[in-house]
Design a protein that fits this description.
CATH class: Alpha Beta
CATH topology: Glutaredoxin
Order of helices and strands: HEEEEHEHEEEH
Strand content: 15-25%
CATH superfamily: Glutaredoxin
Radius of gyration: 16 Å
Number of domains: 1
Largest sheet: 8 strands, mixed
Number of helices: 4
Distance between the termini: 55 Å
Shape: globular
Length: 170
């Protein structure tokens, strides 16, 4: 009986840690301070070859930075619409970065297996430093490098409402 309770609690904790927004609902929260600039250190991110990168390297572009994990079902469910959104927003000066704290090997294997055409990066920082409490969590940065949106939960990224919202984000 204790084993069953222990298993139930573990499963419940995993489900809660991967928050899923209602399908087609764009649940965003404007950041209290719209002038919050990109401050992530280069050492917090690596490309898939292990080279350090900085999000600020993409300043001048609009950045959609999606934090995800291979074990997160809502993360995986939103990826096809995220890929379609990336194609739609290509002319809007957007760059899509997908950051996971899993090992480079796990991220590379996922990319090869799923064949999603994203820029996958490894995140080595702290979720709490980024105020990330559940996955997926997405930050939108404008061309000046200011964080203008925080989106928590799975989103249908290619819905007309979300596409328009991203186009209007400055």
């Amino acid at each position: 009986m204790r084993l069953r309770i222990s298993i139930f609690i573990t499963i419940l904790a995993l489900l809660i840690s991967c928050k899923k927004a209602v399908k087609d609902k764009y649940s965003s929260r404007k950041e209290a301070n719209n002038s919050e600039k990109i401050t992530e250190a280069a050492s917090q991110f690596e490309d898939l070859d292990g080279n350090p990168i900085a999000i600020s390297d993409y300043k001048g572009k609009r950045i959609l930075l999606n934090y995800w994990a291979t074990w997160c079902r809502p993360c995986l469910e939103e990826m096809p619409s995220l890929l379609r959104s990336q194609a739609i927003l290509e002319k809007e000066n957007y760059i899509f970065l997908l950051a996971s704290d899993q090992s480079l090997g796990v991220i590379k294997a996922f990319k090869e297996e799923r064949e999603f055409d994203f820029i996958f990066i490894k995140y080595s920082g702290s979720w709490t430093d980024q105020q990330i409490n559940s996955l997926p969590t997405t930050f939108i940065y404008n061309e000046e490098g200011e964080k203008v949106e925080k989106i928590v939960g799975g989103v249908t990224w290619d819905s007309p409402e979300v596409i328009q919202k991203l186009k209007d984000t400055h």
